[in-house]
């Protein structure tokens, strides 16, 4: 008998127990006698049996599969929304260390989610932004009794909601520059997610207002921009005599575009212009000068969400739903990398 053809029935027959007993042993259920457990484990080792997902799910047991739901789109669109490479690596490390598998699945509509849950039968699901804000998805998961996790939570109008606090992120970034005396702060979102951009700009305006200043209407841009678009906009902002003393760049492309224009115009960074990017990439670390960043550690947040789901299932059996689980690392919501592009605001511009 080839090892690839060995089934749970073969193990049960060889060990002289029921299929259900084999399933309980596989899933480390306490409801198995010591002698039966020893026989089953010995047969599994002798035959080289590898439990499949279906066997592990018997009797409501765990499938040892977590599903990460991401919004549908092209590869370029997905890469522009989330650092999927970092999230994949950190999520896989967290899951594999606990004996779990991890699968990413594009989800756009309720029927996509329903199909994935039926065909894959995951133990739990991580709803990645912006799917974490889709109420219909949360309702479906609640109806099915499936545990869900999101990366973080935010407070809005007196309610605690799933989702990253993008307004708070924009406010924190602006506050970093205000600490250095900047009041003429520009904000170039450059992000393909217009809702996220508007929330960040909302926080940016709030921080300036609290500092007794306000956003200059010509120094705010929420539109998506590639490198060329960022360069065109930065030339319009930095060439005149009245210009920002600092710029917040929502993406790597925007930050590099602003830096290029500053060099072209003879503006020294950070002496004449401070620059803060809202994502952290190797390109920003290698630029000249290296660009300071305030970023959301989405890889760590994702790994934390996976671990919360896994921990919810400890003790055997399926992961029990506990509402939407959020990782307990709110203190790490923003990570500041100072590098070399932030300085005190110049006395006069």
What does this structure look like?
This protein has helices at residues 8-15, 19-26, 34-47, 53-57, 75-81, 84-96, 110-120, 135-143, 166-178, 194-210, 227-238, 252-264, 282-286, 298-312; strands at 65-71, 101-107, 124-127, 147-149, 153-156, 159-162, 185-190, 220-224, 246-249, 274-277, 292-295, 324-325, 335-337. It has 14 helices and 13 strands. Helix 13 links the parallel strand 10 (274-277) and strand 11. The N and C termini lie far apart (82 Å). By secondary structure, it is of the alpha/beta class. The chain has 3 domains: 3-60, lambda repressor-like DNA-binding domains (434 Repressor (Amino-terminal Domain)); 65-163 and 299-332, Response regulator (Rossmann fold), CATH 3.40.50.2300; 166-295, Response regulator (Rossmann fold), CATH 3.40.50. Helix 1 (8-15) packs across helix 3 (34-47), helix 6 (84-96) runs parallel beside helix 14 (298-312) and helix 9 crosses helix 10. The longest helix has 17 residues, at 194-210. The protein has a 6-stranded mixed beta sheet, sandwiched between helices.
């Amino acid at each position: 008998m080839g090892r690839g053809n060995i089934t749970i029935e073969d193990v049960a027959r060889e060990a002289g127990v029921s299929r259900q007993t084999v399933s309980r042993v596989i899933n480390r259920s306490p409801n198995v006698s010591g002698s039966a457990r020893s026989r089953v484990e010995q047969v599994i080792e002798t035959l080289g049996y590898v439990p499949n997902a279906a066997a592990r799910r018997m009797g409501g047991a765990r499938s040892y599969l977590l599903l990460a739901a991401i919004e549908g789109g092209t590869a370029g669109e997905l890469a522009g929304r989330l650092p999927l490479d970092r999230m994949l690596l950190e999520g896989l490390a967290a899951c594999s260390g606990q004996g779990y598998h991890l699968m990413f699945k594009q989800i756009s509509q309720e029927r996509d989610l329903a199909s994935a849950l039926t065909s894959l039968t995951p133990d739990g699901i991580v709803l990645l932004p912006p799917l974490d804000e889709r109420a219909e998805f949360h309702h479906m998961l609640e109806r099915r009794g499936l545990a869900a996790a999101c990366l973080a939570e935010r407070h809005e109008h007196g309610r605690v909601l799933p989702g990253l606090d993008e307004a708070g992120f924009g406010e924190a970034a602006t506050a970093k520059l205000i600490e250095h005396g900047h009041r003429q702060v520009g904000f170039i979102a450059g992000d393909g997610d217009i809702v996220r951009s508007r929330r960040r700009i909302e926080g940016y305006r709030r921080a300036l207002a609290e500092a007794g200043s306000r956003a200059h209407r010509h120094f705010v841009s929420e539109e998506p921009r590639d490198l060329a678009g960022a360069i065109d906009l930065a030339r319009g902002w930095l060439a005149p005599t009245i210009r920002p003393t600092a710029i917040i760049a929502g993406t790597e492309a925007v930050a590099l575009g602003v830096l290029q224009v500053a060099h072209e115009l003879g503006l020294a960074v950070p002496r004449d212009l401070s620059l803060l990017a809202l994502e952290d990439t190797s390109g920003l670390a290698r630029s000249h000068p290296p660009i300071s960043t305030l970023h959301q550690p989405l890889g760590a947040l994702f790994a934390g969400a996976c671990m919360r789901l896994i921990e919810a299932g400890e003790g055997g059996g399926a992961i029990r739903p506990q509402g939407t689980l959020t990782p307990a690392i709110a203190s790490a919501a923003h990570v500041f990398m100072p590098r070399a592009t932030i300085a005190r605001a110049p006395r006069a511009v």
